[in-house]
User: Fold this.
Amino acid sequence: MNNLGLFYVAQIHPAAPNNSKILARFNKQRHNCGSSSTNSANNTMSSMIDLLNSIQAASYGLTLADLLTQHPGIARRTAQRLIAKLIEAGQITARGEGRARRYSGAKVVLVAASSAITDVFPSTIPLSADSLDILAYIDQPVEARKPVGYQRDFLNAYQPNETWYLSESLRRQLHKMGKTVDADEPAGTYSSAILNRLLIDLSWASSQLEGNTYSRLDTRVLIEHGKAAQGKAAIETQMILNHKTAIELLVENIGEMAFDRYTLMNLHSALAENLLPNPADEGRIRQHAVNIGKSVYRPLSTPQQLEAALKVVLDKANQTADPFEQSFFMMVHLPYLQAFADINKRTSRLAANLPLFRANLCPLTFLLRKG
Assistant:
């Protein structure tokens, strides 16, 4: 389908030849979503790539004067603006002041992609010193870590439209990239228009994150023709079909869907059909304690606690005005709460698309690249 735009939340490995890759927190596959490419955008990207490659190649970094000497075709003010974007994106670092200020690059090189890209996201998520400490801590063996329970204060501290997980500049950038030709049409117009492609891409991608070995082609044949792939476990086929059902549920009923208990239970029920040891757990709050593999996290254990916390999650999500913030909020808090016996992450990934469907924004899908 030509007029398809999808946001990809991706973890990408450096497998493409000739460094032909862009690592991004949100990398959008553009067809007819948003504005078309222009020569100016291409020139800007080309200049940014040239500057970044020069900085990356310099063992001890380069000053602005060094860069202007190497690239006489780039104006000084343009170079300064592009350097500032690269710093903000986490592609390069700066040290020193004034004319002595030197720029050094990260290990990842930004190069041209086949489609025009006018916004630059970090190649890796910049980590604070505290974050690095946390990573070092969870790299320890499980027995060396202290068990921890659900932190209700994390949820309570979030104040809709005052607390932000996504910065203002990032939200603005996402809205610019995610705007579609159906922005002013009734809710769900865009997701309905791209439904066939969305069913394949999102069903395959979300299932792949759960270890499903169906290829994208296998998924397409299953969804379009109802033919299961040979040599695949029945549970993998069921997982794909459940995604299809759940996505259709959202898209076809978008006018009635909201962040409420009814929507969430129906969404989980569709995703969980024939996949849980106890069928009664499909579409209902977890009735027992659970442990998280390779983790010392201990979620809430009683249905009453889960019901109360889930109500707060849904209330806060409904009060949040920005659809991208809503989406991210749900992807954070639903898996953390572990409200269901299983299939919490899958439920959160589809629920995260609800505000984007309603606003006729490019929906989310997911990529996992190993390595």
